[in-house]
Amino acid sequence: DADLLIDILADLRDSEVAAHLLQVCCYHLPLTQVELPISLLTRLALTDPTSLNQFVNTVAASPRTIVSFLSVALLSDQPLLTSDLLSLLAHTARVLSPSYLSFIQELLAGSDESYRPLRSFLGHPENSVRAHTYRLLGHLLQHSMALRGALQSQSGLLSLLLLGLGDKDPVVRCSASFAVGNATYQAGPLGPALAVAVPSMTQLLGDPQAGIR
Predict the structure, then answer these.
(1) CATH number where 140 lies
(2) Structural domain includes residue 185
(3) pTM for the complete prediction?
(4) Interval 54-93: pLDDT, tens
(5) Most CB contacts within 10 A, which of 10, 44, 46, 168?
(6) Domain that holds residue 22
(7) Which residues contact 170 (CB under 8 A, 6 or more apart)?
(8) What's the structural domain count of the chain?
């Protein structure tokens, strides 16, 4: 029943369940048990702006501890957990102002700023992980000068971005074209390096998926 669902969601929002889910995952549960609560947190944040704000405010309240947890969870061997978290981060980057996004940049860059986590996600064997990663990059590239700079300075990172244009999975190709498009729109000094993407983008004009064309 629609009215009952609205009431349930309002109770979850008013009880700050999104914040509590993140806290219990971070402080009380072993990593093997966080997949389900993170899945619920992701779905709450995707459907309810207040729950999304509760998520980012909880991160801001304890950034070191929670970013450390998110780093470990993203690089776990649980593809559904990684996929859900990337979806949550992509939605955060899409909806909220750039002032909220520094922790996402940190998660992708890693502690040594080698962008090892991002490289891992872009080459992940699971289609959903790659697709959510490209979607996240597409939103971040609209705001993040640091990420645009990394594509220029970090060896092989730009090649990984462009590799998605020829991915076997149509959802990944679509997300990759979105990311490359936003990288080009905001390119600045990165522009000349993106010229190598033109043949791949041209080839997508003949893609079997209408949305990609």
Answers:
(1) 1.25.10.10
(2) no
(3) 0.92
(4) 999 999 999 999 999 999 999 999 999 999 999 999 999 9
(5) 44
(6) 1-163
(7) 207, 208, 209, 212
(8) 1
